[in-house]
Specification:
The chain is an alpha+beta fold. It has a domain of about 160 residues. Belongs to the cytochrome P450 family.
């Protein structure tokens, strides 16, 4: 057998293998498509009619900047060749977060957030997530924050800062420091234990940058790896170094003063050490702290702290609405399909909250109309992943606002500052939402 015959034989063999592989992949794909079709028919699913178009490369074709309201409650999006969906329908959110919870996972969110947060309830699925959440849940059950002691020192520092200010004051940075101080006080019994104001400012700047960059990475989904600036890596290290300070502080106090005395000052971290025996797993406790001011119930509706979220179908499933000409039929989601949802926009739906849905009108909660709002109101999300710190955040916000109004009965809008309608207020969107122009007031 000459060389040419051998080469020809090898080529035929390779082509045969490639053809067989292609036939196998094609057959598997057809079988999967047929299985998905049968599943969809059994559950009454219909194709979606509303599809969001894109202009090259990534610009949305929208209607006067109000894309979400223009497209309706559920629509299809296509980005970088992948098809996904977006919804603000309360019934769909209930399915994603509760009734069909096991059918969804975080997807690419883990890769997008991992450099900043690492392992934790915001980047885990399945058993690891259940284990982490149960540990944290037990800690929140034990916390006796209703006596308000944890807020006393931080709010006094905030009031001292406001009293020493003059003229126009931006409340937003004051509240950022207040919320961070209550967190460290909750864990260690004293706010900013062992850190001076310079360290705090360094942490704040690095945390803001990490949040902004992580938000950009989340928008890139599976392509998040292409956006990882050197400054981002350095800032993540600084944020983790800040958290490490607190993680290492608790066992050191235990060694120096005994477990009983240390447990009185910071039981939160020490309990986690007993459970995990690994300080690395504890780091995300402070790294996850949100930077924006927590609001009371009505403000929470208008300015939900986490305005947009995403899930990925871990298996072929469906949501109850979105399919068919009227969008009221079930919609099929095949395995790997992403679906975004926005409480921020849902809380502004006029069919849920009336024609004045964009207005700040707390009296709307006094009538019977919203008694059965259910999944139409979810500032802290819902289902098994509902925010563990909900009660703490509401207590913190209520206490802070009352104490400020006791010291400053009148808050005035600075001269020359116009009042924008709620729907037109500029927002900064990172991992959370906050006012792009701060919260400037005149105190008296």
């Amino acid at each position: 057998m000459d060389d040419s015959t051998i080469i020809s034989s090898v080529r035929v063999t390779l082509l045969t293998i490639l053809l067989a592989f292609w036939i196998y992949v094609y057959a598997q794909s057809r079988q999967k498509d047929e299985s998905n079709k049968v599943f969809g028919e059994e559950n009454g699913c219909q194709p979606i009619q509303k599809r969001l178009l894109f202009k090259w490369p990534l610009a949305l074709t929208s209607s006067n900047g109000n894309t979400m309201f223009y497209m309706g409650k559920t629509f299809q999006v296509k980005l970088l060749g992948k098809v996904g969906y977006f919804t603000t329908d309360p019934r769909n959110l209930e399915a994603i977060l509760l009734t069909r919870f096991e059918d969804f996972e975080l997807g690419s969110r883990r890769q997008g957030l991992f450099p900043m947060i690492g392992e934790g309830i915001f980047t885990q699925d399945g058993h690891p997530w259940k284990h982490s959440r149960e540990i944290l849940r037990r800690q929140f059950v034990r916390i006796q924050y209703q006596d308000l002691k944890v807020f006393e020192s931080p709010i006094n520092d905030l009031l001292d800062g406001l009293m020493s200010s003059s003229g126009i004051v931006d409340l937003q940075p004051f509240f950022f420091r207040f919320t961070l101080a209550t967190t460290t006080s909750l864990i260690f019994g004293e706010p900013f234990a062992g850190l001076d104001s310079t360290d705090h400012e360094i942490f704040s700047k690095n945390f803001d940058y990490c949040s902004l960059t992580s938000a950009m990475r989340l928008r890139l989904a599976d392509w998040c790896w292409i956006y990882s600036p050197w400054k981002f890596k350095k800032s993540c290290q600084m944020v983790k170094r800040y958290a490490t300070h607190y993680v290492n502080h608790a066992p050191k106090d235990k060694d120096e003063n005994g477990e009983e005395a240390a447990s009185e000052r910071h039981p939160f971290i020490l309990d986690l050490y007993k459970e995990l025996q690994d300080p690395v797993v504890v780091h995300y406790l402070l790294v996850r702290h949100p930077v924006a001011l927590e609001r009371l119930r009505q403000e929470i509706r208008l300015y939900t702290q986490i305005p947009v979220n995403v899930r990925v179908a871990s298996k072929t499933t469906f949501i109850p609405r979105g399919g068919g000409p009227d969008g009221l039929s079930p919609l099929l989601l095949t395995k790997g399909t992403g679906i975004g949802f926005s409480p921020y926009h849902m809380h502004r739906h006029k069919d849920l909250y009336g024609d004045d849905a964009n207005e700040f009108r707390p009296e709307r909660w006094e009538g019977p109309e919203l008694k059965s709002i259910g999944w139409g109101f979810m500032p802290f999300h819902g289902g098994p992943r509902i925010c563990l710190g909900k009660d703490f955040a509401l207590t913190e916000a209520s206490y802070g606002i009352v104490r400020i109004l006791q010291c400053f009965p009148c808050l005035h809008l600075p001269p020359g500052h116009s009042t924008e309608p709620s729907g037109l207020v500029k927002q900064d969107l990172t991992l959370v939402v906050s006012s792009a122009e701060g919260c400037k007031v005149m105190l008296s």
